[in-house]
C-alpha cells in the first residue's frame, strides 16, 4: 500500500466482512486534546473490545484512518487475533 493511501477504514471494514463472522464488532473511541484552535485528535479502533490500533491527527478523520491502518497491519500480520 502506498503512503498516499487514505482508505484504511474502508479496507479494515472489508477485511472484517471477509471473515464472514457476524460476531466481530468494530468501534472507534476518539478524544481530543490541545488548544481549541489547534486540537490533536486521538483514536483507537476496537474489535470485540480488543484495542487493535491507535492513531493521532489534526482532525478526527485522520486519527481514525491512522488507527485503522495500524489495526489492519496488526491483523494481517497476526499480531492481533480477534
Automatic annotation (TrEMBL):
Keywords: RNA-binding. PROSITE patterns: DS_RBD. Residues 7-77 form the DRBM domain. GO terms for molecular function: RNA binding. InterPro entries: dsRBD_dom (IPR014720). It comes from the Eukaryota. SMART domains: DSRM. Pfam families: dsrm. This is DRBM domain-containing protein. It comes from Fibroporia radiculosa. The lineage of its organism: Eukaryota, Fungi, Dikarya, Basidiomycota, Agaricomycotina.
